[in-house]
Amino acid sequence: MNEILIEKFAKVIVNIGVALQEGQMLVVNAPLEAATLVKYIVKEAYEAKHSKKVIVNFSDADVNKQEQLYASQETLNDLPDYAIERSKYIVENGAAMLSISSPKPGIMAGVDPTRMQIASRVIAPKMAFFRKYTMENEGQWCVVACPNDVWAKKIFPDLEVNEAVEKLWEAILYASHVSMDNDPVADWNKLNAELTKRNEILNDYNFESLHFKNSLGTDLTIGLVENHIWAGGGEHSKKGVYFNPNIPTEENFCMPHNKKINGVVVATKPLNYGGKLIEDFSLTFKDGKVVEYDARKEKDALKSLIEFDKGSSSLGEVALISHDSPISNMNILFYNTLFDENASCHLALGASYTTTNLKDAEKYTEEELDALGSNQSHTHVDFMFGSSDMEVTGLTHDGKVVQIFKNGNFVF
Ligand code: ZN
Ligand code: ZN
């Protein structure tokens, strides 16, 4: 890929993604394939932001796989003190955290998943403070993506591997609003302003419910929880820094009431679940729960998702994305949520984003949250249902019907 574009992408990541502050430390977790991108990220961090220190951790999925295959369970479970000290050092220095993701679909075939689970159960409690640092926005963090051979061939199986990688780079850069003739940082500021404005409009209406209808057969009413918050675009860290946790992002999302969902939704993209591709499926809801479902392919996988736990037969998220948006217009299935969920209006079976989508969420117990309509589950799986003819309206608490989408796109 043209290095001018990669350098522009690096500027977006440093200035918009993690929004690195003057003199701030930066930690970069990256696959080997991202070396050129990382070079420009390090340059931008030191040159433009005078970063105190940039720490780069390269890893390789194939190398990690050898450890998973051949190391003893004792070795897998071992988290040495220096690794904990290192994470403490990062937190104490208030570093920004960047993850460059580069999924390799199918690469872990042959690895016993229980060994990984046992190890993470031992290690996770010791690293809870570190997870909290990003999960609760104590510092800025960001996830972006970079191509690799395996992922590129999965998306473009008919192309030569080099062409497929190039094509995936083009798609990632396009989705991330990076092109030869734009100022991507300015464009991101504009996009964040648009998403924020929409959040404000939607929050001001304080809708009781949303109604979705299209010609494919979707006819669905989704009640929203009281005191909900529409979110999307950038977020503020606890220190007040505005950053973008996901690049790309196009969505405005909110919390459905898990007992007030009624009607039918027809999916418009296949759903990749546990390595199975569920195609042409629909769900029927009554009082918040899936009561009927069908799929042309992999109906059993859909069944196992719906029956995964108590909360996986209800919804934790409703997200609005205009049909006419950069990722949607490419019409590519990325097999990766970071991209696919930003291509189309989507719903998620499973857990809601309680702290993001509910006012004063921290003051409630789990039972109270459930009573309020916040969905509790150990899974969260997004699926797409937007279409070019989607009509969305909102019902206000005083009975007014307000148009939100016309012909697949936001009206405001
Ligand atoms: Zn979403
Ligand atoms: Zn989601």
Structural overview:
With 412 residues, the chain is of the alpha+beta class. Helices cover 35% and strands 25% of the residues. It has helices at 3-17, 35-47, 61-70, 73-77, 81-92, 113-123, 128-135, 149-155, 161-175, 184-205, 299-306, 326-330, 337-340, 354-357, 366-372; strands spanning 26-31, 54-59, 96-101, 141-145, 209-213, 219-224, 235-236, 242-243, 252-254, 256-266, 271-273, 276-286, 289-297, 315-320, 346-350, 380-384, 391-395, 401-406, 409-410. Strands 5, 6, 10, 11, 12, 13, 17, 18 and 19 form a 9-stranded antiparallel β-sheet that branches. Strand 11 and strand 12 form a beta hairpin. The structure holds zinc ion (ZN) (2 copies).
Secondary structure: elements and pairs:
Elements: H1 3-17, E1 26-31, H2 35-47, E2 54-59, H3 61-70, H4 73-77, H5 81-92, E3 96-101, H6 113-123, H7 128-135, E4 141-145, H8 149-155, H9 161-175, H10 184-205, E5 209-213, E6 219-224, E7 235-236, E8 242-243, E9 252-254, E10 256-266, E11 271-273, E12 276-286, E13 289-297, H11 299-306, E14 315-320, H12 326-330, H13 337-340, E15 346-350, H14 354-357, H15 366-372, E16 380-384, E17 391-395, E18 401-406, E19 409-410
Parallel strand pairs: 1-2, 1-3, 3-4
Antiparallel strand pairs: 5-6, 5-17, 6-10, 7-8, 9-14, 10-12, 11-12, 12-13, 14-15, 15-16, 17-18, 18-19
Helix pairs in contact: 1-2, 1-10, 8-9
Bound molecules: zinc ion (ZN) (2 copies).
